[in-house]
Amino acid sequence: MQYLSNSSTAGVLLDLSGAVILLLAFACLASKLFNRYVVYYGAQSVVLAFAAGVSAAAFHSAELWILAALTLAVKGIAIPLAARRILVARLALKRDAAMSTGLSTSLVAGGALTAFAYLVTRPALLPHGSAAAAVVPLSTAVILLGALAMVVRRHTVAQLIGWLIVENGVFLGAITLVATFPFIVEAGIFLDIVAGVLIMIVFVSGLTRQLAQASAAELRELRG
Amino acid sequence: MTALAVIIVLAPLAGPAAALAGVRARPAAFVQAAGAAAALGCSVAMLASLNSGRPLQGWDGFLYVDALSGFFLLTVAGVTLLAALGSVTYIAAQEDSGELTGFQVKLYFTFFGLFAALMLASLEAGNLGLLFVLIEASTLASAALVGLEGRARSLEAAWKYVIISSLGVTIALAGTLFLFYSASALHLGSNLALTWPYLLAHAPALVPQSLRLAFLLAVVGYGTKVGLAPMHTWLPDAHAEAPSPASAMLSAALLNTGMYAIIRFLAIAQARLGSTYPRAVLLSFGFASIVIGALFMVSRRVSSGGLGGRPPRGQSNFKRLFAYSSVEHMGIIAVALGFGGTLGLYGALLQVLNHALAKAVLFLASGDVSLRYKTREAGQVSGLLAAVPVTGGALLLATFAVLGSPPFGVFLSELTIVRAGFARGSPVFPLLLLALLGVAFFAFARTITAMVTGAPPQPAPASPYRDRGAVALTAAPLALGLAALLILGLWIPAGLDTAIMHSAAVIG
Questions:
Q1: What is the pLDDT, as a whole number, of residue B116?
Q2: Residue A2 maps to a domain
Q3: Chain A contacts of B130, Cβ < 8 Å?
Q4: For residues B105 and B352, what is the distance between their CA atoms, to the nearest angstrom?
Q5: Does A74 reside within a domain?
Q6: Which of A43, A78, B466, B491 has its CA 20 to 30 A from that of B53?
Q7: Does A140 contact chain B (CB < 8 Å)?
Q8: What is the pLDDT of residues A139-161, one digit of tens each?
Q9: Residues B18-58: pLDDT tens digits?
Q10: A2: which chain B residues are within 8 Å (Cβ-Cβ)?
């Protein structure tokens, strides 16, 4: 299997996309508005689609082009739109107040997790100087940040976005190892994500309807 | 052979087909049971041919069935049959009483069959990526079952289940990535290279550091599905809120599917890293699970907290009790894998089968109890033996079976596991295991005996079933499961013995 070196154009672009994706994960972690979560997730997915395109061009892989298009269409456009229309707008979600730590604490924790990701993955990586060696620590950090967002946020919609960020992190890792992932598996992962989002949306809407009183009480409590 | 493998996966889809065609609960459940019986028959045939022949491999490595897969196929197909038989009366009674609408019944059978088919398919997947896809898909299908009743509490349980399990399985995907990473020296290119047999055969070329990380991530990730502590938090809620036959599927089939994935990673990790590191990981997660399971059973705080605050002290939901027992038993299996050696692996696999049978019987019996008494709280149930002798008797027998009393199969497998522990050298771990098993025994038996004995409520709970035939049918899966448990306790058929020995050889 051929490797992209980290000094090739594609390698540099992949590295850059990885960094932007990590920054957007931080942005999501630092935000308090449901609208912003969705926007940051959508932007992250668009960058991810770009990264997949770069990878496709570098490896001359038609399957990867399809994946890039799918990422853009599903994660970059369809899921954010659906989340905004069905969840944020219909459930009238504005400020996310259900957090177990303050924003600054979770940002510091996120920084620590990023450092941890580098510590864990760097020495294990092969071969040095490859694009993968640069991107995999980034993708590990994105996975950890998404998981952190799921831990510190108690609202179901915020947890859903956290899981999607984790998925994006794994996907970022996967496209740097393109040749190893068969297309049918990637397509299956996509299908899982779509089905997962759909089923989660059903649960979130159902829960919110059932708990209308409870959440109203919560909103009153946290005003001001 | 390939045809057999395909039939095993497709047969359980008969139920969804019937439900979507618009038939009512009873006929749909019979079709579902027939499909499950076909799958079980084919998996027995498959196991027989695997015992004498080579593993089945095909479709570019996407299909791979060896003795280990065959053994798990048998377990999952068997549980599916028991649960499908249990659905016949349980779901029909719920439909008759109006607790489930026609739409919900349709949903139930659609997702039940899909869930079973996806689990069976994941056991036949040779490709690690495909394994992830199928296991995640089975999570989603079963989440629909957990949230089926649509009450706030079951929706919350379903949410908790789907979000924690999805995160867990995604972590396992990251582990799979690191396994590929560790294999970069192999120049993996074709689909065939990502399969279990290829990676196992080329294990010496894997990079140890990232393989170590991959194994740990896989244990944490798939361990979430297995219900290993501390990733078990979704398990009691989901098991308590799902319809009882679906709880049986979760506890007896789904957890084992997760364990199967861990065992595959274990085999590869052991081939490269030696046994010390993987066994230490499994022993720590295993003992953590046993301790957590036993402590929760003792403290009786298995009450369904859920929404709206805690119920009064001293009350406990019996389905949650069974769920914590599942956490404990998955811990025992992990510990057995950690003890290793032929004895440990043999015990682990035997325990998988025995636990699955016993837990399926327990959950199906609990379904009958909750239909009759209209409660899931153990404190509100008494006099089962007098009021409903068959279910009460089955509950009592299955309780002693799952707790490891002779002459049932669990006794034999737990004895094997403890012996494997002593054979390993230090007596500390097996003694600790025995002590924890004793604690779990008293905690579990105390609650169940209180339910079974005593005076039945006055007036006696009304039968939820339409006719006497339905009552007899309720007993069928209980009797089947208990008979199988008894047989496994007294005599292990030669074919099964060969299959388990071959599987143990696969793990190494």
A1: 94
A2: no
A3: 184-185, 188
A4: 30
A5: yes
A6: B491
A7: yes
A8: 989 999 999 998 888 888 888 89
A9: 888 878 888 888 899 999 999 999 999 998 888 887 888 88
A10: none
Please identify among residues 418-477 of chain B the ones whose CB lies closer than 8 Å to any CB of chain A: none
Cβ–Cβ below 8 Å for A180 and B166: no
ipTM (interface predicted TM): 0.86
- Total-model pTM: 0.90
Q: Specify whether the CB–CB gap between A22 and A141 falls below 8 A.
A: yes
| Nearest chain B Cα distance for residue A9, angstroms | 22
> Which range of residues forms the domain containing residue A56?
9-221
Query: Residues of A with CB below 8 A from B132's CB?
Result: 185, 189
For chain A, positions 120-139, list CB contacts with chain B under 8 A.
120-121, 123-127, 132, 136
Confidence of residue B96 (pLDDT cuts 50, 70, 90): confident
* Tokens linked to B27: 């006929």
| Interchain contact A1–B (C-beta under 8 A) | yes
Closest CA to A64 of A152, A141, A174, A151: A174
A1, part of any domain: no
Band of the pLDDT at B298, cuts 50, 70, 90?
A: confident
A163/B213 CB distance under 8 A: no
pLDDT tens-place string over residues B329-350: 999 999 999 998 889 999 999 9
What gap in Å lies between CA A29 and CA A145, rounded to an integer?
Answer: 8
CA distance B289 to chain A (A): 21
Number of domains in chain A: 1
- Domain ranges for chain B: 2-507
User: B155 vs A120: CB contact, 8 Å cut-off?
Assistant: no
Cα–Cα separations (whole angstroms), residue B264 to B49, B58, B195, B271, B507: 21, 18, 10, 11, 7
Q: Which residue of A has its CA nearest to B195?
A: A180
Q: SS3 for B247?
A: helix
List Cβ neighbours of B384 (8 Å cut-off, separation of 6 or more).
Answer: B369, B391, B392, B395, B451, B452, B456
Does residue A199 lie within any of the structural domains?
A: yes
